[in-house]
Structures are given as structure tokens and as C-alpha cells.
């Protein structure tokens, strides 16, 4: 019942560490950082508060970095050589989700790529990467970028996520820019008196923002947001149950170097030009899977009963053959029942297919379910109309 | 008067006339957080001391519950299936897990009384 540190390395702190401790957070090791897994409210209520009102998350452990080249076409082309999204066509201020790929089409990491809105930032791309993978990503990028494009990690920046249906009202009080942003778009702007980079995005399935600030301003930003509305600080525990209900992948669990974006159900993140033209690592495998279908697919799984099926649970066909494995699973507080996702053979991947989950030696009945478990509530742009996270 | 004993795995057992009632401690439920599922053994199940016989799942993870002493399960708490959160509300009262007929009461001597358990909890923090 106690979480032991898994490494001899000293754990790193985000700029908000002291505030988490003063708020009574339970701190645990995560991706080399000491992070809040929950506050005194507890995971269940933190989760529900985010869905009903809004929650504030410290995600400063994530990697923030810039690619810097002479112009957009050069920088975008350099990145397109490493991932399958259409980066060239990004408009200023537009953001896309993508995956860095191995030569076999496996996923090194998933990331957000933003073309900064300001004309003075032409030639730059802003990346947000997973904490657990950022060192691997930086080495990968640095080794493969052309001389004309430089990687500049930004460890001096903090990142805060504000998520939930009440997020827009909170930001409208503090920022001129935030209300004008549609889902998957971004701009520089002030929050209160702080200069920030604001994007309308997140990892909960709800409307919300991710706000990047210099580390020295992080505490001010956090406290300003907490004062501005009915926000509660939310830990990694609820972040995980929120993203699971939203059907979003967690690196190292639902996706890794053995899974392709097609198997993972991320086809929507590969735009048409790239599907046709290829020119990214693993293109042969990915185009093959696009044409012929992948042999296994990431699916949602709903247990019939009350017992959660955790990561690693075997998935069996009704006749007892092993057809897959659960990669994320637990209790969905908004679903008010157990939810899971995992990979199953394509022949068993259709929604409604009955399966069995081997939990503690017992075969528990379940069924393949549509993802997400809770409908996404993203707020689209009123102004331009950048394509969002749907196909 | 009933005898009350505690394990190092944070179970409690209350013994009355050769029958022990078993649950998890208040301290355990605070550590686990929001309980969302409880799986109790079936009546008739024979268990050795320290054997995993029940499961409690919080939002975070599943944890085994070990039988504090050897014996045969004679009754389980039917309320827990529908109301797992009862464990958070009243871990050492209404949220008992199961009752067992104790095979060897001498095994109770290997467990801690409340004062020793409280010292153990303090020490392990």
C-alpha cells in the first residue's frame, strides 16, 4: 500500500512543489518528479469536480521545447520527417496532436505541435512532450534534425492546465485572448498581469486551456487562477481517470514503441496528404495498415460487473482464446462503473463484441465499447475554424 | 468482552466466542482513498493465516486483504457489493468484510493489540 520510489535518482520538483505540499497534496514519484497524486479532496471528488466545474493541474513535468528554423516551411518539413501529421499546413496559432515514430512505425512519444501565432515567431514550432519520454525525445530530435533547424528545450517554463466546463468563464475574467481561441489553437497573451502562452486543449475530454509561463511566474498564475473561480487543484490520480474516460492514450501504457498509430486508433491524427505521400518513419507499415487494416486494435472495454480490470488483464474470447490485453483500466467516476481500454485482435474489435476479462483467476464478462466513455465537450473556434481532434 | 487484534497488513479482527469479524483499519482506508469495489470470499471458504481472501479496490489500485488467522468463512457483508464507499465511511464498524470460525485461537497471539498497532502505524510513517 505504500508507493516506493522506483529509482535511485533524486526526484525533481516542479516550480509548484511547495504549493502542492502546502495544499496538503499526497506527493508520489512520477516520471522522475515528485508530483501530487491527489489533494485532500480525493481522486473521486477531484475527478467529478473537473467534469462538473473545473480543475487546475500542474503539468510542469511535461517537456516543453521549441524547434527553431529560418521559416515555417523549413521547420515544418524537418518535423514532418519524424512524424505523420501535416505540419506544413498549420496556420499560425494552430495546434496538432501527433506521434514521433520509430523506423518501424512504433510510437516513441505522442506530442502536441503548435505553430506560434505571432508573425515574429515564424519558423518556430512549440512542442509539448511526455515527462517520461522527454529526454528520449530530445536525443531523438537532436540526432535527426537538419543543421538549419535547432531544438531548444524550455525547462525554465512551467505548464498549468485548467480543465472543465467552467474553465472558459474563469479565463474570460483574466484574459482577453483566451475566449477568442477555439479548440486546438493557441496564442501569446496575458493572464492577469502575467505574460503567458495559452492554448485551448487538454487531456480530460473537457473544454479547457494549457497555460505556459516562466517558472518564476508559476506560483502567481496558480494562485490567481484558484482565486478566480470555483477551481480545485487536481492531482495525477484524477488526471488519469479523466483521460481514461475520455479515451485518450497514456504513453507507456496504451501506446509505446511496439504500437503503431493505426493500431492505436489514431488514424484521425494523420492528415490525408501524409497518408497518401508517406515520407515519415514507418510509412510502409502505416500505409499497409491503412490499406489492409491492422491485425489488432485499441478498443474500449466495459466490464458487465463492478470489478475494475487493471492494466495487464488478459482479454479472452467467449470460447477462451487469448485475444488481447488491457492497457489502462480502472473505475470511471463519471461513468460510475469500471472502464478499460486495451488491444484486441481485429476480428474481435467491433463494438458490442462479448469478451471475458481474467481478473484474479476468474473470467468476468465484458464487451467491446465505443470510445470515449464520456462524450468530449471541446469548444470549437468561432473565428477561423481549425480542424480539431475529430476525423 | 470481544478481543480486538490487528495485522501488519492493516486488517482488524474482533473475536467473540470463537468467531472473528474481519475488516480493514481506518488507517488503511485513508491510505487507499476512495473505495470503488470490494470482493469478499464465499461462505465455506477455508483460509490459512495470511492467505489473500478478499480484495478491495480504490480508484488507484487493487489491494489484497489477508485473513488475520486460519479458519472457515461463515458469513460475508452483503452491503459492501452495493456500497463499497462504506469502507471509507466506517472501516472499523459497518464495513466489516467477513466472519470466520477460528481454527486455532493461539494464532491471535501473533497479532497486535490496538496500542501496538497504533505505534506500528506511527513508526511506519
Describe the structure.
The complex is a heterodimer of chains A (391) and B (125). Chain A has helices at residues 17-22, 43-52, 72-80, 134-144, 167-174, 218-228, 236-245, 272-277, 283-292; strands at 26-30, 33-38, 54-58, 63-68, 95-101, 107-114, 124-129, 150-153, 157-163, 186-191, 194-199, 208-214, 231-233, 296-303, 314-316, 322-332, 337-345, 354-359, 362-369. Chain A has 391 residues and is α+β, with helices and mostly antiparallel strands. Chain A has a six-stranded mixed β-sheet, with helices on both faces. Chain A has a six-stranded antiparallel beta barrel with strand order 14-17-16-15-18-19. Chain B is α+β, with helices and mostly antiparallel strands and 125 residues long. The A-B interface holds A 1-2, 37-38, 42-45, 47, 237, 241, 306-308, 310, 330-331, 333, 338, 360 and B 10, 28, 31-34, 36-37, 39, 55, 57-63, 81, 84, 124.
Distance from first to last alpha carbon of chain A: 42 Å
Q: Name the CATH superfamily classification of chain B.
A: RNA polymerase II/Efflux pump adaptor protein, barrel-sandwich hybrid domain
The mean pLDDT of chain B is 95
Widest sheet: strand ordering of chain B:
1-2-3-9-8-5
Computed over alpha carbons, the radius of gyration of chain B is 13 Å
Largest pleated sheet of chain B: 6 strands, antiparallel
Strand order of the biggest β-sheet of chain A: 10-11-12-9-3-13
Written as H for each helix and E for each strand, in order along the chain, the element string of chain B is EEEHEEEEEHHEH
CATH class of chain B: Mainly Beta
Which pair of protein chains has the largest interface, and what are the residue counts? A-B, 20 and 20 residues
The helix fraction of chain B, in percent, is 10-25%
Amino acid at each position: 500500500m505504500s508507493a516506493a520510489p522506483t529509482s535511485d535518482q533524486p526526484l525533481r520538483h516542479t516550480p509548484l512543489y511547495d504549493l502542492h505540499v502546502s495544499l496538503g497534496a499526497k506527493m508520489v514519484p512520477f516520471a522522475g518528479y515528485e508530483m501530487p497524486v491527489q489533494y485532500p479532496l480525493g481522486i473521486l471528488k477531484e475527478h467529478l469536480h473537473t467534469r462538473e466545474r473545473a480543475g487546475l493541474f500542474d503539468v510542469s513535468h511535461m517537456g516543453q521545447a521549441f524547434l527553431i528554423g529560418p521559416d515555417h516551411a523549413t521547420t515544418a518539413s524537418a518535423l514532418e520527417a519524424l512524424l505523420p501529421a501535416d505540419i506544413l499546413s498549420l496556420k499560425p496559432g494552430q495546434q496538432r496532436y501527433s506521434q514521433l515514430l520509430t523506423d518501424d512505425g512504433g510510437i516513441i512519444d505522442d506530442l502536441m505541435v503548435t505553430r506560434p501565432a505571432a508573425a515574429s515567431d515564424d519558423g518556430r514550432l512549440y512542442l509539448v512532450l511526455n515527462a517520461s519520454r522527454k529526454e528520449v525525445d530530445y536525443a531523438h530530435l537532436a540526432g535527426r534534425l537538419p543543421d538549419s533547424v535547432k531544438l531548444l528545450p524550455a525547462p525554465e517554463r512551467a505548464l498549468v492546465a485548467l480543465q472543465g466546463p467552467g474553465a472558459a468563464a474563469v479565463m474570460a475574467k483574466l484574459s482577453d485572448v483566451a475566449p477568442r481561441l477555439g479548440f486546438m489553437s493557441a496564442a501569446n497573451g496575458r493572464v492577469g498581469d502575467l505574460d503567458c502562452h495559452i492554448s485551448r486543449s487538454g487531456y480530460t475530454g473537457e473544454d479547457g486551456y494549457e497555460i505556459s509561463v516562466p517558472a518564476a511566474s508559476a506560483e502567481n498564475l496558480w494562485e490567481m487562477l484558484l482565486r478566480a473561480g470555483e477551481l480545485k487543484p487536481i492531482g495525477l490520480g484524477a488526471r488519469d481517470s479523466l483521460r481514461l474516460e475520455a479515451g485518450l492514450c497514456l504513453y507507456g501504457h496504451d501506446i509505446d514503441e511496439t504500437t503503431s498509430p493505426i493500431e492505436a486508433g489514431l488514424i484521425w491524427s494523420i492528415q490525408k496528404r501524409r497518408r497518401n505521400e508517406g515520407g515519415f518513419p514507418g510509412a510502409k507499415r502505416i500505409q499497409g495498415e491503412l490499406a489492409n487494416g491492422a491485425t489488432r486494435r485499441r478498443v474500449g472495454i466495459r466490464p458487465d460487473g463492478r470489478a475494475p480490470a487493471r492494466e495487464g488483464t488478459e482479454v479472452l474470447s467467449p470460447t477462451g482464446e487469448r485475444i488481447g490485453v488491457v492497457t489502462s483500466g480502472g473505475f470511471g467516476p463519471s461513468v460510475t462503473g469500471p472502464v478499460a481500454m486495451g488491444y484486441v485482435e481485429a476480428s474481435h474489435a467491433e463494438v458490442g463484441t462479448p469478451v471475458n476479462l481474467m481478473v484474479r483467476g476468474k473470467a468476468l464478462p465484458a464487451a467491446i465499447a465505443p470510445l470515449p466513455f464520456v462524450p468530449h465537450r471541446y469548444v470549437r473556434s468561432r473565428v477561423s475554424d481549425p480542424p480539431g481532434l475529430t476525423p | 468482552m470481544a478481543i480486538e487484534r490487528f495485522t501488519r497488513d492493516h486488517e482488524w479482527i474482533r473475536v467473540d466466542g470463537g468467531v472473528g469479524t474481519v475488516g480493514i483499519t481506518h488507517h488503511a482506508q485513508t491510505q487507499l482513498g476512495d473505495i470503488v469495489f470490494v470482493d469478499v470470499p464465499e461462505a465455506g471458504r477455508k483460509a490459512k493465516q495470511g492467505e489473500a481472501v478478499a480484495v478491495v479496490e480504490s480508484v488507484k489500485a487493487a489491494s489484497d486483504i489477508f485473513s488475520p488467522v486460519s479458519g472457515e468463512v461463515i458469513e460475508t457483508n452483503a452491503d459492501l457489493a452495493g456500497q463499497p464507499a462504506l469502507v471509507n465511511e466506517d472501516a472499523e464498524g459497518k464495513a466489516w468484510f467477513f466472519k470466520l470460525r477460528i481454527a486455532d485461537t493461539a494464532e491471535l497471539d501473533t497479532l497486535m493489540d490496538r496500542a501496538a498497532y497504533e505505534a506500528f502505524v506511527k513508526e511506519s510513517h
